Amino acid sequence: MTQRPTLVMDVMGSDLGVSEMLRGVADFCDVMRGKQFDVVVVHSAPDEIENMRRQLAILSADSPTYTVRFEHAKDVLPKEFTSPVDAFKKYPDSSIRRSMEIAKEHPQSAVISPGTTGLVMTAGLFTLGRVKGIDRPPIGTPLPTHKGDMWFVDGGSNVDCKAVHLHQFAILAHLFVKTLYGKESPRIALLSNGTEDYKGNALVKEARALIEADPRLNCVGYVEGHSLFDGDVDIMVCDGFLGNITLKLAEGVGTFMTDTMRNALKRNMFNALAAKLFLGPALREMRTRTDYAQWGGAPLLGLKGNVIICHGRSNALAIRNALKVGYELSRRDLVMQVEQVMRDYGESPAG
Questions:
Q1: Is it the case that residue 234 has pLDDT exceeding 90?
Q2: pLDDT digits over 337-349, tens only?
Q3: Under CATH, what is the fold of the domain 137-292?
């Protein structure tokens, strides 16, 4: 039976503050008028939310198809802690823990949080648990390409992997992309040091054999680092060690290119004027295509609940879009699909 999606928004942990997170919630509610859903805002800052609470109440009153309610978590997490596990246990009424507990009560739900990756992962694993058959939940990370978005797993949660784990990553990413984009047979490739069959280390070769042997998956072989942005694959699979390096490298190159162009324009007024007149639209398009806010956040896949981890610097646009992703994954019941597929395997692909 299809239920109304419940979106649990943890507004604590953001670099930009609670107010910016709440603006994202308000923007989401505004653009989703007419849709049926429930939003639960979990916070530890009652004074900061009062003004936005009234605004959200007005919005929800104007649109009877959705509701917004607030939950106060009493424990305020410190900005820095040595262990996510210790922090999770020491602060039993933290906003992220309360958010996961609320989501657990609603089968079709999603938790959206700008908290630290380690803490969100810990809270998700301890509270929601893993889908049976999934050994290590990976992080899905988007990259823009010439032909649309590509997602890669793992973005950094599992640095030491076996081939069977990469196979599980491929299964989860396949279902995620199929659910979110409607692609029935997304193209899957493993990150390697060449596209030839003999390339790759032992881990990559063994993982490729497992993925190619899986009739549910559309494995197209290997993809090299310089081809990631071509758009010829929909999903790139690698361990979290390589995945996080890939992500940070892409971010660094993007920053370098932007800074180089900005410095060059500053040195020459004519170039700056020409760029504004003739390159303005192109530069704006490039900035939009590479803005992480367009995707909202990174899904933590393989849990018995949808979890979207947002960047600590996420603005209102990023939160709005993360909520939209959470809405779609909940509405289309990604978790149920994962559970069904893993049951069909009969046992963990790890054997």
A1: yes
A2: 999 999 998 755 6
A3: Isopropylmalate Dehydrogenase (3.40.718)
Tell me if the domain spanning 1-134+302-338 has CATH number 3.40.50. yes
DSSP 276: I
CA distance 350 to 8: 32
Q: Where are the domains of the chain?
A: 1-134+302-338, 137-292
Exposed (0-12), middle (13-18) or buried (19+): which is 202, by Cβ within 10 Å?
A: exposed
185 phi and psi angles, rounded to 5 deg: -140, 70
Task: Give the sheet arrangement for strand 187-191, strand by strand.
Answer: 141-145, 148-153, 235-237, 187-191, 218-223
Dihedral in degrees, nearest 10, Cα atoms 219, 220, 226, 229: -80
- For residues 334 and 303, the answer to whether their CB atoms sit within 8 Å is no
Residue 205 pLDDT > 60: yes
329-339 pLDDT per residue, tens:
999 999 999 99
